[in-house]
Structure formats: structure tokens, C-alpha cells
């Protein structure tokens, strides 16, 4: 059983897809959000939950006071489940669900996020993940017509990548720098923040 840990929907259960996803455990979510709340990046934030699965990470953020959460999930059954979970928790007004591949979603017009949560499936390669991180930082397509690279991240944003401890550290683009690592059993959370190249 998967539940929201804390906030307005704390203790409420989530439906999870029968297969194809591995929801982040309650223990790991509790530790992650304790750190994120300490950093002050949840309450009032615009949040992107990429590879959303059941929506557990993004819905946890919404329960804890995020202003708006976008759940991006390629599998239509899982995306439909995200919508049902958001509605059942009474969070639907602050949660959008997009049934699309992450790369396709990030190819659209950027919105500014203060918190980005990525829990890619095991079959997402390190190269694919690096491409997604580069696109978040506004580097995948180079500069826009005004000569500036436009990413998805606020200047004080926090990016969190969840991976197996057997996976290598993500390849950070020039516009992101590592800001921490936390291991919880077989799960590792990598933290990064925007980094303006001063060179």
C-alpha cells in the first residue's frame, strides 16, 4: 500500500499501476521531503514530476503545499491513474497530468519550476537521462532567438534524480551542478541546482 506521508492529504492511500512502475517508498519520500522542506523549496513551489508513475512524488509535494504540480507520464494507464489519485486526494485543482514522453514534453515551451523530481524507469539509459537534464537546463537546443538558453528552472531551483545505487551519478549539464547525494537502502537521491557558467 502506498500512502501520502504528510500534509493536507497525509495518510491517504494512492492507487499504483499494476506493473511498469516502482513507487518511491514512504520511508524514502519522508526523508526526501524532510530535506526539501528544510531547503524551503516545497511550499508555494511550481513542481515538475517527470516519469510520474503513480504520481506519488508530485502528489506528496502538492499535499505539502506546492502551488502547482505537473505530472508527466508516458504510459496512458498510469497517467489516468495519476488523474484519479489527484482527484481522490482533493488535489486536482493544483495538479495537471500530461500523458507524454518526458523528452517530448520538455521540447515544448518551458514554464519555470522551483522543484523538479525525476524517477526514471530502469530502462531509461544514462544518455537519455543526460539529455533530459540538459533540456531542463536549457542546453539541449542551444540559445533561443534572443541569444539566451531558456530552461525550465528557476534560478534557485532544486532538481532531484532518483536512481538505483547500482547506477552511476547522472551526467550533469554545464547549467546544473551537483548539490548533494543521499542513499536510502538501494535508492540514491542526487540533488542538483542551476549553475551559471562564469567562464
Compact overview of the structure:
The protein has 199 residues and is α/β, with parallel strands linked by helices. The protein has helices at residues 26-39, 56-63, 76-88, 102-106, 126-136, and strands spanning 2-3, 13-14, 46-50, 68-72, 95-98, 113-118, 153-164, 176-184, 187-194.
Word description of this protein:
The chain has 199 residues and is α/β, with parallel strands linked by helices. 26% of the residues lie in helices and 27% in strands. It has a single domain, classed as Rossmann fold. The strands form 2 sheets. The protein has a 7-stranded mixed sheet. Strand 6 (113-118), helix 5 and strand 7 form a beta-alpha-beta unit. The longest helix is centred in the N-terminal third of the chain and has 14 residues, at 26-39. It starts with a strand and ends in a 5-residue tail after the last strand.
Amino acid at each position: 500500500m502506498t500512502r501520502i506521508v504528510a500534509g493536507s492529504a497525509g495518510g491517504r492511500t494512492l492507487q499504483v499501476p499494476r506493473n511498469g512502475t516502482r513507487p518511491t517508498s514512504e520511508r524514502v519520500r519522508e526523508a526526501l521531503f524532510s530535506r526539501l522542506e528544510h531547503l524551503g523549496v516545497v511550499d508555494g513551489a511550481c513542481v515538475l514530476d517527470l516519469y510520474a508513475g503513480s504520481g506519488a512524488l508530485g502528489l506528496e509535494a502538492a499535499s505539502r503545499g506546492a502551488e502547482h504540480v505537473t505530472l508527466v507520464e508516458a504510459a496512458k494507464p498510469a497517467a489516468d491513474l495519476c488523474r484519479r489519485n489527484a482527484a481522490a486526494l482533493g488535489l486536482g485543482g493544483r495538479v495537471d497530468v500530461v500523458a507524454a514522453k518526458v523528452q517530448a514534453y520538455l521540447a515544448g515551451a518551458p514554464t519555470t519550476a522551483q522543484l523538479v523530481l525525476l524517477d526514471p524507469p530502469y530502462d531509461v539509459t544514462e544518455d537519455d537521462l543526460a539529455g533530459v537534464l540538459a533540456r531542463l537546463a536549457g542546453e539541449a537546443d542551444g540559445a533561443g532567438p534572443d541569444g539566451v538558453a531558456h530552461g525550465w528552472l528557476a534560478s534557485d531551483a532544486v532538481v532531484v534524480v532518483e536512481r538505483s545505487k547500482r547506477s552511476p551519478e547522472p551526467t550533469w549539464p554545464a547549467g546544473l551542478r551537483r548539490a548533494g547525494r543521499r542513499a536510502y537502502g538501494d535508492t540514491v537521491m542526487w540533488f542538483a541546482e542551476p549553475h551559471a557558467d562564469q567562464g
